[in-house]
Amino acid sequence: MTHQYVFRTIILGSAKAGKSSFCKTYAEGYSCVQKEATIGVDFVAKKHQLDDGTIIKVNMWDTAGQEAFRAIIQSYYRDICGALLFFDITDRSSFEKVDFWLKDLRHFNTCKHDHVVILVGNKSDLKDRRVISHNEALTYAKENQLLYVESSCYDVDNIETIMHHFYTSIYAHYCNHENCKGVKTNDENTKSKVFSSLRDSITTREKYRNCC
Ligand SMILES: Nc1nc2c(ncn2[C@@H]2O[C@H](COP(=O)(O)OP(=O)(O)OP(=O)(O)O)[C@@H](O)[C@H]2O)c(=O)[nH]1
Ligand SMILES: [Mg+2]
């Protein structure tokens, strides 16, 4: 399945909100609830087909929510086209930190335009332990021009729907911002590979020019 575009995206939010479980579940296509905290940054890649048949390759940085990794994570904000901003609907402190992540994301944005950001309230299966209502999260999302969805890492179909919506929005956004640094066409990828191999061969020639 040959892709036409590569989208570089990121997933952010407090520790234990369920970011890695979500990424893994999406990548594998079955529920993969994680137990281990992410150290620094992980990476997920997958191909995805849009409604018009366009195939995109999605590269997603799965970041650690722990404070200790904050400085490392900031370097991954560069050159992305979209972000999933996570909180846990059973944990108010994770919701209160959303504002911090959003400001950080906008501060380090290297494009001139805003990116697609979806606010995700995770662990929707834990209905009895919910402390953030759908309405409260939706109000925050509207005030900050974000889309709002809820997910459970036990519901694979819902995750697939969220990701489809995410990529469709980025694709539509890309039409208006052709120079988004987080979106590359496959041609550009090929071109840059050709250029880098050309560059390598020139460097090698230079290196051995004075050799007997
Ligand atoms: N009930 C329920 N538990 C979940 C869900 N998603 C994740 N969990 C649990 O929440 C805990 C944290 O999940 P992770 O996916 O590691 O969270 P994270 O956001 O990647 O955490 P860091 O890597 O530390 O930033 C784990 O014990 C998971 O089993 C969910 O949708 N429902
Ligand atoms: Mg993680």
Summarize the entry for a quick read.
With 212 residues, this protein is an alpha/beta fold.
Helix-strand sequence: EHEEHEHHEHEHEH
Associated small molecules: guanosine-5'-triphosphate, magnesium ion
Rounded mean pLDDT score: 88
Q: Class by helix and strand content?
A: alpha/beta
CATH architecture: 3-Layer(aba) Sandwich
Task: Catalogue the unreliable spans.
Answer: 190-212
Q: Quick one: CATH superfamily?
A: P-loop containing nucleotide triphosphate hydrolases
Distance between the termini: 47 Å
For the largest beta-sheet, the strand count, sense and barrel status come to:
7 strands, mixed
> Helix tally?
7
Q: From the alpha-carbon coordinates, what is the Rg to the nearest angstrom?
A: 19 Å
Taken together, the total number of domains comes to: 1
- Helix proportion: 25-40%
Write down the overall geometry: globular
Q: Under the CATH scheme, which class?
A: Alpha Beta
Q: How is the CATH topology named? A: Rossmann fold
The proportion of strand residues reads 15-25%
The number of strands is: 7
